[in-house]
TrEMBL record:
Taxonomic superkingdom: Eukaryota
Transmembrane segments: 7-25, 64-83, 90-108, 128-149
UniProt KW Transmembrane keyword: yes
Keyword flag Transmembrane helix: yes
Protein name: Uncharacterized protein
Organism: Prototheca wickerhamii
Alphabetized UniProt keyword annotations: Membrane, Transmembrane, Transmembrane helix
């Protein structure tokens, strides 16, 4: 069974779109955290009740999302490096294993962004985070599929 690399046009297009979605996520979470004390809403209303059982401060609430964002950054650097060096056939299983938990973390972050959006505070900022995480989740799944493609024709 011969293994072939994903079509480079699809892979590079996905990586470019992943970088764009990462920038959208960065803007969303950065603006949400920068607006922690920006209105009359309390910190608990602003973020502490969005998906967690215990009340936390606004600045502490976003630390998990920041961790996911920087994990995504490292995955994008890894994907770009693997595609640029054309070593997909050697590193495909490592990259897929690196992307799988990230995809779950992005889905979880999407849920948090949706909860913040529906709380009614900083809706446009939450929508930016939501849009970035949705785009990134879908494109991560596309990359996992592209990396997992195998040519099953006998040579």
């Amino acid at each position: 069974m011969a293994v072939k690399t994903p079509p480079l046009l699809y892979a590079w297009t996905s990586v470019v779109l992943l970088w764009i979605s990462w920038v959208v996520m960065l803007g969303g979470v950065g603006s949400l955290q920068a607006n922690c004390g920006g209105s009359g809403a309390s910190e608990l209303l602003r973020a502490g009740s969005a998906g967690y059982l215990a009340p936390v401060s606004c600045h502490r609430f976003y630390s998990y999302i920041w961790w996911t964002l920087w994990y995504d950054f490292m995955a994008l650097v890894l994907l770009s490096y693997v595609l640029a060096k054309e070593i997909v056939h050697i590193t495909r299983y490592f990259v897929i294993a690196f992307l799988a938990p990230l995809t779950y973390l992005l889905m979880s972050t999407t849920d948090v962004a949706q909860a913040i959006w529906h709380l009614g505070v900083s809706q446009s900022r939450a929508k930016a985070l939501f849009a970035g995480t949705i785009m990134s989740t879908i494109l991560q799944l596309v990359m996992i599929i592209l990396l997992g493609i195998q040519d099953e024709l006998k040579v």
